[in-house]
Amino acid sequence: MKQRTFNTLFMLSSVDGKISTGDIDARDTDKDYPKISGIKEGVQQYYDLEKRTDRVSLNTGKVMAKIGMNTGKCKLNCPNVEFVIIDSKHLTLSGVNNLIKKTKRLYLITTNPKHPAFKVRDKLELIYYPKKINFVDLFKKFKQKYGMNRVTIQSGGTLNATLLRAGLIDRVSFVIVPTLIGGANTPSLVDGSNLRSTNDLSKIKTLKLVKCEKLKKSYLHLVYSVDN
């Protein structure tokens, strides 16, 4: 039995692996896909599947700020879901309080000793790492201290790469959008550092297909287990 949580990476992706519609914050799939004919007709299927994910959701402060959490314009409302947010500089005090209001409980993980979350205590569990987040320790802590068994991860390509290469993602669940986006700097499912040496090949994870479901409007739902 694992000493840590079972972690699933759940993402919306284009056929070429892009998780955004461009390389600036103004471009965002939540905002842009509903505007595009051939995509908007089927995108709701992703959000329907999202409602059936784990009760614990991990994301980043950067994503939360991008969708308007700091300004209060974010429509996210998950009163039955516990949120784990990795953040050092993107969330304001208002953003932290808005997240607390919209979730069952907030766990904020940071390396910033001056993060505004230190000013908040109610419905907030603040976990501080002085220099670098130890994700192996973090996921063990989630299970052994906080009683979590499963976590759904919906973060960006850089954090996805960090967790994947550390062997901390057990399953990937992708909803594939029938589109090609392109762009060398457009965020992908897995970004992070480039692989160059022969030794770097050990960082590549192989997958085993668990499920392949054809959805409506040429969408696909692919589920793989990760060979760690």
Quick tags:
9 strands, Dihydrofolate Reductase, subunit A, 20% helix, 228 residues, alpha/beta, nine-stranded mixed beta sheet, single chain
Apparent shape: globular
Uncertain runs with pLDDT below 50, 5 residues or more?
A: none
Largest sheet: 9 strands, mixed
Structural class: alpha/beta
CATH homology superfamily name = Dihydrofolate Reductase, subunit A
* CATH class category label: Alpha Beta
The CATH architecture classification is 3-Layer(aba) Sandwich
CATH fold description = Dihydrofolate Reductase, subunit A
List the domain count as a whole number. 1
Radius of gyration: 17 Å
Strand ordering within the main sheet: 5-4-3-2-6-1-7-9-8
Write the layout of secondary structure elements.
Elements: E1 6-14, H1 29-32, H2 44-50, E2 56-60, H3 61-66, E3 78-86, H4 93-102, E4 103-110, E5 124-128, H5 135-144, E6 150-153, H6 157-165, E7 171-177, E8 206-214, E9 220-227
Parallel strand pairs: 1-6, 1-7, 2-3, 2-6, 3-4, 4-5
Antiparallel strand pairs: 7-9, 8-9
Could you give a short description of this structure?
The chain has helices at 29-32, 44-50, 61-66, 93-102, 135-144, 157-165; strands spanning 6-14, 56-60, 78-86, 103-110, 124-128, 150-153, 171-177, 206-214, 220-227.
